[in-house]
Design goal:
Layout (H helix, E strand, L loop, with lengths): L5 E5 L6 H15 L6 E5 L5 H8 L4 E5 L16 H5 L4 E4 L2 H6 L4 H13 L3 E6 L3 H5 L3 H12 L5 H5 L2 E4 L13 H20 L1 H6 L1 E5 L7 H5 L6 E4 L6 H14 L2
Parallel strand pairs: 1-2, 1-8, 2-3, 3-4, 4-5, 5-6, 6-7, 7-8
Helix pairs in contact: 1-2, 1-12, 5-7, 7-9
The structure holds 1,3-dihydroxyacetonephosphate.
């Protein structure tokens, strides 16, 4: 199965709109025409418009970091799928920081994924175990449950329109990335394996699964060398144009 790599930059709560524009311009000149890789920038909501204008007409795509599952209503501070649909094509769903600090559960992740899909957005569904779960040897169980519940009641066509990111929580922002082999094992067994159980092996083979957690220009090559890893969801290193450029180019080359 020839899966085109994806590198997504999760800018988290960083950059003012002016700073976001500056970073987006640098990335357009660095990788805006690069073939063999899909690049998605995920700035904060308030910068979607400005970054969208800058990446328009290039090969760089745009994503949001979150959404609400309802279309509209009295949900102060929230943003819905139909609002995002005119602006971007991707949306991160169930990032561990949302699960940890904003009470997101496997059930709300499922609702958000469905809302995104209903409005033709590609959800980047995040899963991954915490440090204590990792230390307790519960990685398989946790990741399996998260995948199972995120995809509950989705049909095969919908499942094929998703991306998954495996982000072990202990590797996020810590500088302690997983090993390529370790991440590949979880992705092969507990992500692609569960998708195969739910939707069949053809869907599982076609699904693109990213690794996230302290990805750098130095370690991306190791991750991309793994058979089940199709790209990266990059936090800190996506805020520095030269680092993100190096990661994107390495990902494109790895599977060329
Ligand atoms: P870091 O790359 O900063 O570890 O963040 C990873 C992440 O959470 C991407 O969503």
């Amino acid at each position: 199965m020839n899966r085109i790599p994806v590198v997504a930059g999760n800018w988290k709560m960083n950059k003012t709109p002016a700073e976001a524009a500056e970073l987006a311009r640098a990335l357009v000149s660095a990788v805006g025409g690069l073939l063999g890789v899909e690049v998605v920038l995920c700035p904060p909501f308030v910068s979607l418009h400005v970054v969208g204008e800058i990446v328009k007409g290039t090969r760089i795509g745009l994503g949001a970091q979150n959404l609400h599952w309802e279309k509209s209503g009295a949900f102060t501070g929230e943003v819905s799928a139909p609002m995002l649909a005119g602006w971007c094509a991707h949306v991160i769903v169930g990032h561990s920081e949302r699960r940890q600090y904003f009470g997101e559960t496997d059930q709300t992740v499922n609702k958000k994924a469905k809302a995104a899909l209903a409005h033709k957005l590609t959800p980047i569904i995040c899963v991954g175990e915490t440090l204590s779960e990792y230390e307790a040897g519960e990685t398989s169980e946790v990741v399996t449950r998260q995948v199972w519940q995120a995809y509950a009641d989705l049909n095969r066509d919908e499942a094929e329109r998703t991306l998954i990111a495996y982000e072990p929580v202990w590797a996020i922002g810590t500088g302690k990335a997983a090993t390529g082999v370790g991440a590949n094992a979880v992705i092969g067994l507990n992500i692609r394996g569960i998708i195969a159980d739910l939707f069949g092996s053809a869907t599982a083979d076609g699904l693109r699964v990213l690794y996230g957690g302290s990805v750098t220009p130095a370690n991306i090559v190791e991750f991309m060398a793994q058979p089940d890893i199709d790209g990266g969801l990059v936090g800190g290193a996506s805020l520095k144009a030269p680092d993100f450029e190096a990661i994107v180019k390495a990902a494109a080359q790895a599977k060329a």
